[in-house]
Structures are given as structure tokens and as C-alpha cells.
Amino acid sequence: MFKEIEYAGLKFKNPFVVASGPPGATVERLVKAEDAGAAGVSVKLTFTKQPFYGRLRMYSKPGEASIVCHDRRLDMEEGFELVRKGKERTDLKLLANITHPAEDLEGWQTLAKGYEEAGADAIELNLICPNISFSERRMGRSTDKSHGAAIGQHPEIVEQVVGAVREAVNIPVVAKLTPNVNDITVTAKAAERAGAAGVVMAGGQSGLPRVDIYNGGRPLGAYCVDGYSFGSMGGPGIIYQSFALTAQLARALNIPVMAGGGLSTWEDGINFMMYGATLVTACTVLMWEGFGVIREIVDGMERFMNEAGYSSWQDIIGMSLPYLKPAKELQVVPGKAVIDEDICTGCLKCVGLAHCDAIVEADGMPQVIPEECVACGICIGVCPVGTISVVEC
Ligand SMILES: Cc1cc2nc3c(=O)[nH]c(=O)nc-3n(C[C@H](O)[C@H](O)[C@H](O)COP(=O)(O)O)c2cc1C
Ligand code: SF4
Ligand code: SF4
């Protein structure tokens, strides 16, 4: 086993935490998560009392995207009981994912204190959920109460909520931030100023599914429901945006970042850490592949660390950040594409790319005109047999 890692003052046996959602909604699932190797679980979102009782409705395209528009949340007594039992039956670090109207800071404090008494290791403020008031605002309606992402867009309210909850409990308070903002570092810094011990950035962009173009344009993929709502996105389709947000946060903050949003393999986990994450987190992939995928992710990450000769997780956190520069400061050098004729099958997929005059057909085979090549490297990925490389010249 590789070494433990610290986040928000807590020690985790490895960097993998199950993100809040259905996989963290019952004690049996917490046990399964621990058996599969998770170091922690963020339990399902809890309200003092839910504004409506949801049922899981989710556009689900395995390998591509999830967009959840409805889910069963927990009322606080259920949540407290879940954490009490979870602490009895597992050694997991349990984060309590909570939300409440911003207008009632005492309600936030009640939830947080209840969770602290129940044994939660940390409070995770849900400033991300786009399914409650945020989805109404996406429809152009005004709402009297703000929950989740509708709070997470306003740095001054983030600061108030983090501050109020910090005052109420002694356990660490972390802020799970919405990506549905212009600049996530502004809300993250507000959380940091108010004393958050860490932030969580795990996707949750507001999204809509594809529609059934042959059936009146009805949004696809949610069964047994009469329409759709602007939902929270997960799955591999969002991972590149998640990397960007992780890097931004890691550069801007002095507190640690737990990151996810599209993570589905151990390599993704290492990528997130190299972009600055201290812990990594996932939800959708568990719903597609079961708890066993946690074992693959954790074992793969630990194997990589051992094989690559690193001595602690800390060695890789943020190691990709020095490569990031404003575009105008990137030093671009000339180069050219080279085709290995021994491997080329002559399929000509690399000929006629819309941006490229450098590969032409000659006697049924591709030929590179070096002086036309801008060395963008796009043809490398287009070639089905991997026979193109780009070299400096
Ligand atoms: C069905 C479902 C329910 C979710 N419920 C919650 C929740 O209760 N609280 C929360 O903070 N995030 C919730 N999320 C968001 C996930 O925790 C995660 O941030 C997001 O799905 C992106 O990560 P992924 O690509 O690994 O799914 C939910 C996601 C899904 C798919
Ligand atoms: S795509 Fe690859 S295999 Fe096909 S012609 Fe071009 S270099 Fe050859
Ligand atoms: S590197 Fe870019 S410009 Fe050069 S041949 Fe490939 S696609 Fe064309």
C-alpha cells in the first residue's frame, strides 16, 4: 500500500473519495465502498427537510456523460443516522454533503452540528447542486430561496455560509464549488477567506441531454418522467474542463483541492493530482461499473507511484502546473510530420484534413510537403495505425 495523504487536516489512506451521490446514500453502500478500497465517502446531499422528494432520473451514456436532474436526497435525521452507522461499520472518512437556503445561516449550522455529533469527519458545503433553485433560475424564474449552485455563484454568500458553519463546528469545513461561474477562483478564495479547510471541484456543469429528433424533440434518457430539467453533468465528457478548473484552483489557493468531474480510470486520478489535486473523487463511473472500479483506480494509482519511483503522493501534486503559461508566452518551434512508409496502409484518412495542405496523395499513398506543414500534430491522432510522428526541424 502507498502512503496516506492529508487533506483539510484529515489523514486519508489513499487519495480516492466517493463523490456525493447515490453510491453514498446507504450504509450498505458505504461498506461496499470501503471494501473496494475507497479512503472516504461524501455522503448523499442532506437538507434539514427536502424542498421536494426526488427520484433518480439521469441521462446516462456510459463512457460519455451523465446528466442528473432529479434524485432522492436525505432529510437530516436520515443523514445523521447514515453517518452514525457508517462510522460504526467502516473506517472511512465521511464527509457530510449539506445544503440549505442561504437566507437561514442557522439552518446550515443545525445541519453541520448534527453531523458533527453523528461522527462526520468533515462538512462538505454543497454550493454546486444545480437541481434545486438553480434549475428554476435557468428557466428564467425567480426563487425566494437559494440552494446549492445558486449560492455558489456569489462569493459574498459563499463567505457567509462558510463562516457561519465554521463557527458552529470543530471539524473541518470544505466547500464544494459550482463550475457554473465566470471565475471559480473568486468563489474559492471567498471560501478560503472564511476559513474553509479545503475545496472540492467535481464537475456539475449545468447540462441538457440529446433529444429524440424523431419523436418531437423530447429529451432523451430519463425514463418515467414527463420532461427534463437543467441537470448536473458528470462522466468523461467533462474531464478536460475539470482539469482546467483543478489547475486554476491549485494555482490560486493555499488550501488543498479535492478534484474530479469525469474521472473514470486510475490514469485520470494521476492526471488530476498532477494538475494540483490532493484527493480525487468520482461518482458516475461507480454507477456504470459498480464499486469494483474503485479497486482498479486505487490499485492503479498506487502501482503507478511505486513503479515510477515516487516516495509520496506529495511528489506529484501540481507537477504539471509549471508547464502552464499564457498563450503568448509559449515558445513554438518549427517542425514537420513524418510518415513511416513501412507501417502506412494507404488508407488516406490523413489526406484532405480541412486545415492542412501538407499531406497529399501521390500514387495512392500519402506524401508530406514539409514546407506546408505547421507541425500542429493533428494528423498523428487521425492515423488509425499510428504511423505519423512530428519532429522538430
Ligand atoms: C445521480 C447523481 C447524484 C448526485 N448527487 C450529488 C449530491 O447529492 N451532492 C453533490 O455534491 N453532488 C452530487 N452529484 C455530483 C457528483 O458528486 C459529482 O460531483 C459529479 O457527478 C461529477 O463527477 P463524476 O463525473 O465522477 O460523476 C451527483 C451526481 C450524480 C450522477
Ligand atoms: S492515415 Fe496513416 S495509414 Fe492512413 S494513409 Fe495516412 S499515414 Fe497512412
Ligand atoms: S502536423 Fe498538422 S500541418 Fe503537418 S501534416 Fe499533420 S495535420 Fe498537416
Q: Care to describe what's here?
A:
31% of the residues lie in helices and 22% in strands. By secondary structure, it is α/β, with parallel strands linked by helices. It folds into 2 domains: 319 residues, TIM Barrel (Alpha-Beta Barrel); 61 residues, Alpha-Beta Plaits (2-Layer Sandwich). Helix 3 links the parallel strand 8 and strand 9. Helix 2 runs parallel beside helix 3, helix 6 packs parallel to helix 7 and helix 7 packs across helix 8. It is globular, with a radius of gyration of 23 Å. The mean pLDDT is 94. It binds flavin mononucleotide (FMN) and iron/sulfur cluster (SF4) (2 copies).
The termini sit apart by 45 Å
- For this structure, the CATH topology of the largest domain is TIM Barrel
**What percent strand?**
15-25%
State the major sheet.
8 strands, parallel, barrel
Low-confidence stretches: none
Instruction: Sum up the overall morphology in one term.
Output: globular
How helix-rich are the residues, as a percent range? 25-40%
Give the count of helical stretches. Answer: 12
Name the assembly state.
Answer: single chain
Q: Which class of the largest domain in CATH terms? A: Alpha Beta
- Strand tally is 21
CATH superfamily of the largest domain: Aldolase class I
Give the rounded overall mean pLDDT: 94
- The CATH architecture assignment of the largest domain turns out to be Alpha-Beta Barrel
Q: What topology, given as strand order, has the largest sheet?
A: 3-4-8-9-10-11-16-17
Please state the CA-atom Rg, rounded to the nearest Å. 23 Å
